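Ticket closed. Logging final result for Cationic amino acid transporter C-terminal domain-containing protein.
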Amino acid sequence: MILGHVMSGLCSKMNRTKQLPADLMETPLNRCLNTFDITLLGIGHMVGAGIYVLTGTVAREMAGPAIVLSFILAGLVSLLAALCYAEFGTRVPKAGSAYVYTYVSIGEFWAFVIGWNIILEHMLGAASVARAWSGYVDSMLGNIVANLTMELTGEMHEQLLAKYPDFLACFVCLSYAVALATGVKATAMINSILTTVNVAVMALVVVLGFWYASPNNWSLPGQGFVPFGFGGVLAGAATCFYAFVGFDSIATAGEEAKNPSVSIPLATILSLCVVTVGYVLVSAALTLMIPYNEINPAAALPEAFGMRGITWAKYAISTGAICGMTTTLLGSLFALPRCIYAMASDGLLFSCFGKVNTKTQVPLLNLAVSGICSALLALLFDLEKLVEFMSIGTLLAYTIVSASVIVLRYRPISVEETVHLAPDTPGTDEEDGGPAPLPGTTAPVAPTGGGIDSSSQSSTIDPSSPTSEMIEIALAGRLRPQFRWLEPVLGRCEPGVACSGAVLMFCVLSVAVCFQLENSWDDLYHGTWWALGLYGFLLFCLVACVVVISAHHQNTRGLQFKVPFVPYIPALSIFCNIELMVHLSFLTWLRFFIWLSIGMLVYFLYGIHNSKEGELGTSYSMLMSTNEAIRGWGATSTALGGGSKVTVTKIIKGRISRKTAGGDRQAIVDDDDDDDS
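Final structure:
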């Protein structure tokens, strides 16, 4: 019975998208965070174990002084994804981050995949930072904790596990989970104080590091600035990418921001820029102070200042490291319960995870489960395995968010959505007794090849008029006039379908190019004929996909923040994320597919049957808007405060036309044609 139910309309169930409620600002969570709070939340989540733990490892073993380039490259890739997150933050101010964005734009199945990976990302992030926190404190105490633990419990002789169980890291995870249960405002206050201390310590490191800098350390004999080659820089960038994981937690605060359409994009860009500059300056100061081959990977910054005789700075840096890792841990444990809450609210996870405590306005059960699972991971696994496993889910989420931006930009408005016209907008044919002219225009509108000739009306439509907005919505996903030569190939496609197909093809081709670059770079470098021909063909197809996408009209109405140069920046983000994923090890991919297999069991045995989008009217939507129950039942025209509310079903169906003779004008929306027939 289960198999028969799953196979019945499986594709339609997997591809159904989330219909947003009428009031996006209504939420059971507490909207109390301003832009400053959210910016510090993002900075605090990013500046932690990445700068204090990974810097020494990457500089010593992967990139040398070129770690500066690795951080710049990782920061640019993160910035591309951050721009896409910022646009979605204004479009969908809901908890759940990339999960909600994918659900709205692509479909339920991929949304579950991303949500399941985000759960893993934040769980591993919390565990890895707790492990780093424990190791840092233990090193300050002379390894007393590690030695005592191994004396009492012995070592765990298992390759997949850590050398010994880390009870301190487990305790730290549980303690911070309890602290987060007090409420989001108290958490934001603690995070702001600790982040300020952390940024001050980073500034101290930069100033002292450049004061004691020696330029000769960037040009060691026989080593140079890039001792491990460009491959080392790329490998270092893939590892340094972990240091930027955390800005997506800003998007999870969308339901707790006072003004999410402004705060989310601004906080995302600001926090990422501040962190990137800080990382580059700190890594430059470290590699200028001492030769890269003398860096201690376990405690790079304190040991570097100790070698220079600045012993007092060691304690200041250790304080900053503890504060930084604390804020990162708080950020992961803050985001994880909210992602689980978003998935449970949609019915894809068990309903018990969709409840919010009425007093603290925090999903307490989610927080308890998150804290316990993260504590168990921190107890049993070491930092290296946690970090490597974490990167793949993050990169996949960034890739799909970037693709979602393109898909939504070129997707026409759905039949359920409505537009509000001005009070002086003429009514429908039935109201006026005949065809009505377009408000704000002096010329009628006609289709061309199934689309709308925007060039014939651009000079006659007021851009601020309601009709201009309706026409832009109707044009979305249709070919631009200058690309009419593509109509024999793409003319039969429904609006938006060609763009979605081109995005999918671009992702597949990017995977092929990146795998070829990884496996046959030498052949390409030496100009082997087959490598040049293969790469030439693949690059031509990639460019063709981008051209097909850019040949269509976009819909940007209502966006307070827009990613510039769409589709080029999101496409570049997709390619860069896939390139970094290709550099991850086989074991990481194997662990990822095991985790994904568990998620597929949850989705196909529970989520697909209990999805709220599978019901006629979701309970979540019903709570948000009392008139949601009648959405989608044909076309309506309802008076609303002197204006009118008209569905654009006929726009999407291409019912925008004009009579070429006699000067008669046809209304842009004819709601009653089908009803009368």
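The mean pLDDT is 76. No further action required.
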